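Lecture notes, unit on binding sites. The following record was shown on slide 14. It pairs a sequence with pyridoxal-5'-phosphate.
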Amino acid sequence: MQYVSTRGNAPDLDFEAVLLTGLAADGGLYVPSAWPRLSGDDLRGLRGRPYTDVAVEVIARFVGDAPSGTLDRETLAGLIDKAYSVFDHQAAAPLVQLDADTWLMELFHGPTLAFKDYALQLVGQLFDHVLARRGRQVTIVGATSGDTGSAAIEACRDRSAVTVFILHPKGRVSEVQRRQMTTVLSGNVHNIAIEGSFDDCQDLVKAMFNDLAFRSEMSLSAVNSINWVRIAAQITYYVAAAVALGAPDRAVAFSVPTGNFGNVYAAYAARQMGVPIDRLIVGANSNDILDRFFRTGQMRKASVTPTLSPAMDIQISSNFERLLFDLEGRDGAAVAAQMDRFRRDGTFAVSERQLAAAQGVFTSARLDDDGIRQEIARVHRATGMIVDPHTAVGLHAARTAGAEVAVPLVSLACAHPAKFPDAVEAAIGQRPAVPARLRDLFEREERLTTLPADLRAVQEHIRSRAPVGAAA
Ligand SMILES: *Cc1c(COP(=O)(O)O)cnc(C)c1O
């Protein structure tokens, strides 16, 4: 399988290169040169099979033909087994029925209790395997405002080929989120609290990648949400849910709380592969740039408002570029021109025909913080279930924008409510029960280093602690 850049001006790469590369050299994102297919018989063959079998069936199609001894099917299956063995539910992504035709897909059974584990656990295994085979070491550097950092740390801990440095803004992540990162005491995990904001952290990471000498000296790498392999791994749970609810003989629809557009794009990818998905509902919080786009065809940037669903507090949804590539007829130059416009003017628009094509698949809805509290309370009254604020956005979108859907509708539970106890308490007057994985979190030892928002200081710190730096 070959991958092409959405901006049409970077070398084509194979699966392993895409795994290790992340962003394309022309600033674009990698996508498969053609969509692999899951036929009706392929889908029927997946009925009743474990989650890991579905994952092999999906992800092997994105690896393509690999020379034996590299990422052949057997090796891939072994890595997939290891990745999902740490999940605490046999079905990995179980469906819970809410009413006659609505289901909740629980995506919080991984080590950090949010859906990012479903992709990052596998990416961690793949990174380690491919790098060890090549005799290489990389230094992963990332910034986090909360959930991504802990998922990346859990995915990389104790892996010999990677050393991971995660920057978070000191005092500006919740105590649960901080402790999920800083209580991982593995020698290859380094937490840095930056005296500054999340934007400062992100700027520092960008500056390190732009310092080409430092980048090559440290073999810098990223596991951020534009990595194609994260998308490929996420396609699995859409296929598993569709098959469980009757695909290929019955279609389904999904409602997805959306920030960077990675998760809902994976659902779109499943549809492109042949899974019968009638409709995709994009749930937005007050940061509603995508909701406005799907109504008007115009993308217009606004400033970011902090909300009760912080993982969706995003104005530039990087993975949207992958959908735009298809809307533009896979014309990389056209995508590059649109993205240039967006960077320069903070806005771009698609044609009526392109908007109609997008609206043929996607519907959207938005929910502000008052609405989130009301939705958590409504679900609790109706079902006794406690949902997190992100899940509430998806459920509300399913109920409103999904009212016309005539097939089973699956809403995604992207995080465990115990990660957001204050928002839950504000909505229903009680705190969610603490799951086993978090039970002794507040007794565990923490390890972190505090540094000023200063590039030289952070680079010195990383250089002195990464094995590649120490060896150089
Ligand atoms: C990351 C995240 C999202 C947003 O997902 P995208 O793939 O960025 O659209 C939503 N909810 C939770 C809990 C998350 O961690």
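Take-home: The first strand starts at residue 2 and ends at 5.
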